[in-house]
Amino acid sequence: MRLFQLKDSYRIGLSVRHCQVFVGKGSPTIGIRRETVNAWERRAPLAPSHVKKLTKSGINDYVAAGASVKEDLSEAHVIMSVKSVPIDQLIPNKTYAFFSHTIKAQQDNMPMLDAILQKKIRLIDYEKIVDKRNKRLVMFGKWAGNAGFIDLIHGLGLRLLALGHHTPFLHCGLAHNYNDSHMAINALRDIGYEIALDKMPRSLGPLVFVFTGSGNVSKGAQELFEHLPHEYVDVRTLPKVAKKGQLNKVYGCVVTRADHMVPKNGGVFDKAEFNEHPERYTSRFATEIAPYSSVIINGVYWDQRSPRLITNPDAKSLFTPVQKYDTPGTPTLPHRLIAICDISADPGGSIEFMTECTTIDKPFTIYDADFNKTTDSFASPSGCLICSIDNMPAQMPIEATTQFGDLLYPWLIDMLNCEYSQPFDRLQCRDEIKNAVITSDGKLTPNYEYITELRRQKSLQSAHKSSIMGSDDKKVLLLGAGMVSGPFAKFYGQQNKVRLTVATELESDGTRLVKFGHEGNICNVVVDVNKENDVLDKLISEHDLVVSLLPFTFHEKVAKMCIKNGTDMVTSSYVSPELEALDQAAKDANVTIMNEAGLDPGIDHMLACEAFDDVTGHGGRVTSFVSFCGGLPAPECSDNPLRYKFSWSPKGVLTALMNPAKYRKNGKIVEVAPGKVVDNLIAIDFMPGFNLIGFPNRDSTKYADIYGLGPECRTLLRGTLRYKGFVETVKALHAVKLLDTKQADLFMSTIGPDLTWVRLSSPFRLSITLLRSFKLVYFLLQASKFLYFKAKM
Predict the structure, then answer these.
(1) 3-state secondary structure of 99
(2) Calpha distance 314→377 (Å, rounded)
(3) Which parts of the sequence belong to the Alanine dehydrogenase/pyridine nucleotide transhydrogenase NAD(H)-binding domain (predicted)?
């Protein structure tokens, strides 16, 4: 640690107007922490040149003719560093200055903020030293841009090589491999020379670098970009450049908010309105700019009210593999956008799928939009390279420290005057520093009291997630042992912080599900939910969440017990009138009962609402919504009469076909009588090779209000998806009354296993004409193999 003690004079000469005087007690002392956040962090808030400057100003007489190097900084009035301070090293009742990363209630840094408040530390955040226009005055921005661009070029070379393209970018190293920026610039110029000689693979097409933002980060990246043979183009010309641009240079496009932010209600971009109400705007970046970009260098500040540049759904479109026209030696790129350097390093921010920063040790990852996950393998056949190191300037520590110190130097006396003994409301410092004080006297200062509410909102969001997956000792009760229970138990068996209890009617079912457990995190109990109400009630009271996979007729009973015991509940069944009647009781008990949380209904609802939000977010209206969903087997596994395999209750699958249906088509209501949905087939032209058919599913019209669709939505249909052949088999089964839900005398225990197919079919009074129908006989014969009946039900 370095300790600078100011002895003789306490005045720093800046200008007559801004001359500052230290007003504290004793000798003004600045302590500079040694950075310990990681091995790469070698920056400091002040460089030796600033020490020399302080000496020449006559205000700093160093102990022992220089800076004292000691571990104890307790005598310092202000303790300065770049990165955050470990909680156990925070000294109570002191003034600290560093980048705290707390102003957005960043979850990872909230324990540190709590410790700062508890220890009554006065915290100055460099990020909030801004002028009246909210422009930052002290930053590493340029060097983040410099280092980010160099790292990106290095990663781009590796990624293109893995995709089969040798490029000059391979000759660029990571930023910390160069002694200073001049060496890095020389390497970029060598790369540019090869590009100018037309040595880029023609299969890559024109390379377009898009820079977001107009601040120091973006300008720093542009500064190095300009050492390549380049041409800047306007946003409006991107489609033409991406298609017909030259290969002996690269293209740059600087994108500002006005280029893609548009009011949701129409009109043009208004900077003042956007600054006050960013939620009124939507971004067209993903649809009008990103599709023509090869590389995106992101340097914009983002807050939670602002539209994102690229969302997860946008990524699925941008990273969809294009049709390939490979020729020997020149493979086609999987998609146009191949790399993103998110220098803003804001997880889940303007680039939604960038959920975790990379590091200097591991600077790159490949994002797969199909699975919404990342991999470290450059050889991945598709996906976008991501570089998002949160301390990029640490790769160029000497130059970054010098410039940062130049910007910080004029504010040093102001910061010294914020030493802890001075009351916050009487601080004798300029507003730029006072407004950067986050905490004082164990409280958030007025400008930052919003952090408390922001934390609360984030806590509620995370609590919703952690109720099943989150904190320790969460206990989940699973009711039912049907076909869905196996995958459910398998998933929870892999979770370390959840204990699952499976309640089954038969011991054998429970034993089967327990085998999915890991280190005893699944146990089973035998209970008859029809008869053992007291046992069931006690089980529900002992768990945090009940997941009912029982037949829907049992949900009302279970829900009432959950409300009584204050236990949340989830089902995959449709909301029944009986459950809907419990809505107010559940609200009064602060109990969540979530229904329709399976595939259909469930995931289809989520995808639908995601699509609606995307449309309305871009200023559009939903005039028609048609959705088909079905859990189908792989085509090669559909070799049975139904062209289907049961993944849930077979009875439920087949009897659902007996329900009526209702939907809206071109403004008119269409109603289908019970059992007639299979007579109202709807052609499916999506992926014709799969031979798909669809038919309406229950009452679609009720979802108009649930989905928030207005009267302009004239078509609303939710349907079921099946392979062709399913309907014909179902009709045959229905004709011979195999879908009848009434108990037949034939299935009495007295008959036993001697029941034959002839005896089974004769009471159904099948006519000779029907039996002579070759097609029906074929279906019946096949069904006799597919639907295996035991006489004892």
Answers:
(1) coil
(2) 23
(3) 187-388
State which amino acid sits at residue 418: C
Residue 309 — very low, low, confident or very high, per pLDDT cuts 50/70/90? very high
Query: Under a CB-based contact definition with an 8 Å cutoff, are residues 559 and 580 in contact?
Result: no
Average pLDDT over residues 424-450: 94
Which candidate, 99, 191, 108, 141, places its Cα nearest to that of 297? 141
Cα–Cα distance, 383 to 381 (Å, whole number): 7
Contacts 24+ apart (CB under 8 A), 549-553: 549/478, 549/479, 549/480, 549/481, 549/482, 549/484, 549/485, 549/488, 550/479, 550/480, 551/649, 551/652, 552/576
- This prediction has a pTM of 0.58
Containing 474, the helix (H) or strand (E) segment is strand 474-479
CA 446/CA 439 separation, integer angstroms: 9
The model's pLDDT over 438-485, given as tens digits with 9 standing for 90+, comes to 999 999 999 999 999 888 877 666 554 444 444 456 899 999 888 888
Helix/strand/coil for 579: helix
| Per-residue pLDDT at 310 | 94
Q: How far is Cα 377 from Cα 383, in angstroms, rounded to an integer?
A: 10
Domains of the chain from N-terminus onward:
2-128+398-454 (3.40.50.720), 141-395 (3.40.50.720), 472-594 (3.40.50.720), 603-727 (3.30.360.10), 736-793 (no CATH)
- From CA 116, how far away is CA 409, in angstroms rounded? 25
Q: From the CB of residue 185, how many other CB atoms can be counted at a distance below 10 Å?
A: 16
> Which residues, other chains included, contact 148 with Cβ-Cβ below 8 Å and sequence gap of 6+?
217, 220, 221, 297, 341, 343, 387, 389, 392
Catalytic residues: 600
